[in-house]
């Protein structure tokens, strides 16, 4: 008989691995023939990809185990997840950013702040996981 705790661990591992490979493939941090990255990768891109995947999986596992949440936890986790994707993704390849800011603004203003965005988003996601575990 599989307990709810075991299911929560399986959910955590499944979501973390799925997000790692899905987001890593889309952002071409994991090389593949379907996507091309137009900006160079840095060591911190891999760190933010790994942390975002693990923390998102942890949040989902804890949520499944406890079966309750606060709005603050959900908002923190969602904001951290979205910010994490922007922090390790190719800013030039992101059509939405280029549409809103323009190519030169993305290169000048957004790309230098991607590591800071990564730290903020991982912090938000960590706080969301902490609050969810505390419930």
Q: How would you characterize this protein structure?
A:
It is globular, with a radius of gyration of 16 Å. The chain starts with a helix and ends with a helix. The longest helix is centred in the middle third of the chain and has 24 residues, at 43-66. It has six helices and no strands. The protein is mainly α and 135 residues long. The model has no long low-confidence stretch (mean pLDDT 89). It has helices at 4-26, 43-66, 71-88, 95-101, 103-110, 114-134.
Summary?
This protein has six helices and no strands.
C-alpha geometry: globular
Q: List the total number of helices.
A: 6
Oligomer kind: single chain
Element order, helices and strands?
HHHHHH
What labels describe this entry?
135 residues, mainly alpha
What are the SSEs and their pairings?
Elements: H1 4-26, H2 43-66, H3 71-88, H4 95-101, H5 103-110, H6 114-134
Helix pairs in contact: 1-2, 2-3, 2-6, 3-6, 4-5
